[in-house]
Amino acid sequence: MFFRLLTFALFQALGAVLAAIFASAFARGQISIVSAALAGAAVASYFWLVSDLVRGLRLLRWLRMGDGQNAPVDSGLWGEFANRIRRLVRSNERAVQQRDERLQEFLAAMQASPNGVALLDKELRIEWFNESAARHFGLDARRDKDQHFGNLVRDPGFAAYLAAGDFSHDVLMPGRSSTVSVPVRLSVHIHPYGEGRSLLLSRDVTALEQAEAMRRDFVANVSHEIRTPLTVLGGFVETLQTLKLHDAERARYLDLMAQQAARMQSLVSDLLTLSRLEGSPLPPAHEWVAAAPLLQQCREEAAELTRVLWGESQNLDFDLDLSLELAGSASELHSAFFNLIGNAVRYTPGGKTIRVQLHAGADGAAVFAVQDEGVGIAPEHIPRLTERFYRVDRSRSRDTGGTGLGLAIVKHVAQRHGAELSIMSVPGEGSRFQINFPPSRVRSVPAAAADPSPTSLPTPTPVLLATP
User: Which fold has domain 113-204?
Assistant: First the structure.
């Protein structure tokens, strides 16, 4: 401000001096020097005002153009205005940039969310949605923006949810990619916020619903599997209490009761095995189990099971690489191996051949396989064989002492050892069950160095059967 007044005074003084000099030199007394000086000061003031107005107009044009960098004036009052405006613009630009960066970070976080997120206006039209929401509802960012959400999602349950306007709870509906063979279930919840706006959240609850269904089935199956032998036991106990029986009849009833008790014991044992597999740490990868003694025990148990079931020996053909060792738990591997061999014995008639193989491939991986000549399995049953209590033939499984948990145990053991269970079967020709061990879990030692004694083998389990 001081500089502005100083320049104004200097302009007036310079105009007055120039006018006085001009009057004294050329007017020769026609115009007084004082009058000339005043006129000169007035003209100088006019020029100063014009110059100052030009500077102000340049500043105004700069502001209108929105160029926050190159100010047209850099001195005087207008220069001070320009500098202060430039600093204010830069500060606002930095603040806007920071807000944009935070907004982009927030949107990126919502894009990374596995849950679907959609922003809706007061008319429930789509303003923004993330990739998960696009996948859940089959939306397209270019095509569906500003579209009414209810027009794009036509599920009757969701339409009723929108129409009711009660958003205090969520609604379950099928996802866009849901099919009969691969169902997809979504939990959708609308949260109102702001002035009539809405936040829509969607969550894939397929796994939760499947887990809940499995839990219900598991409880129902366990209850049924235990209730059946308990009912039989209760009937026999009542018979023994109320009827006078001969010693032979009493002995037969007691034998049947023992079989039912053994069936429950086998079921509880398998359930405890599954529980241990699901809740215990993974087997160590540095403890090695010799395959030879492990499979020799399986051979002896299979021969005993064959004798009890069929009364005649089956042809048990063991083709093994005795130099192999597997990293993991000896008890778990024994459980998996004997479950597969035991299943083959149960479903292969007497006189047929059961082949058990354990070999390493060129890549260092190992394959344990059990192939039988039994009745085989229809293709529609194979994907469900590892489900708990799933049986192709329920009555036959119970008659041969099966609990319906054996293949579930095998699958868990394989997964815990980094292996994979595969099943191939042809109805009427037989089945092949195979566990593929990765190279990291397999090593080969010279036959002379293979010492079965360090391996802690489980105590042989009595064969528990229930006869019809």
Answer: Beta-Lactamase (3.30.450)
